[in-house]
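ok trying this again, last paste got cut off
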Amino acid sequence: MNPQDFELISDLLAKRSGLAIASDKTYLLESRLTPVARQHDLNGLDGVIGALRGSPSEELLVDITDAMTTNETFFFRDQKPFDLFRNIVLPQIMQARSETKKFRIWCAAASTGQEPCTLAMILKEEAAKLADWSYDIVGTDLSRSVLVQAREGKYSQFEVQRGLPIQMLVKYFTQDKEHWKVNSDILDMIDYRELNLLDEFSQLGKFDIVFCRNVLIYFSTADKCSILERVNALMPDDGVMFLGGAETVIGITDKFVPESGQRGLYRPSGS
């Protein structure tokens, strides 16, 4: 791929999704956009580039963005954040909200739904403690295609084998031929919405807990700062934010501070 073609696609992705793709990742363009070319009856990657230089349809632009921003996820990913949520964050939030008995959780970049489903299952496991509580889980993603699967809650055998404890599979899923479907009582706990993190998202409302894991790594420093500061505006002073293990706020924004001794856990700084 020549530099001009690479710049054309990378600029498109940056404008539509914030994705900053390095020049050594051209293999990703080829592997992910070849199926898009077939879907639109184009002659491979050259055909996609030719269409982009002409008058591309919005459908093609959406499919290109979807293909390049769909990232890997699985149930109980990295485990530690969910242990922190269950054993430390949830008890703290319940104590702090003991009068209102309400809290809200946002899963940014929810992808195909494994993260919000994991949180919903944890809350189900704590049902006795939360009997008279009201809580919301909002899952957002830029990709329409992944949200279709998330809302359907249907996963392959391979997907449920990745991180999902067998007792959770038996308790909260029903087998549907070669797939497993999340039970409706779990799916009904989650509100999925299409959202680009580069866009305004104050309309989502306030959140006590935010999971924004393994997505900021794809953005430029300026976009990371903007996203984090707008997330901060949605949170109370005693809120909690989870980032991925390879992500940090240090050197990006002073709106959050890391929780001492708890990797990946951040709180609003009040600044």
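PB: full thing came through this time. The chain is about 45% helix and 15% strand.
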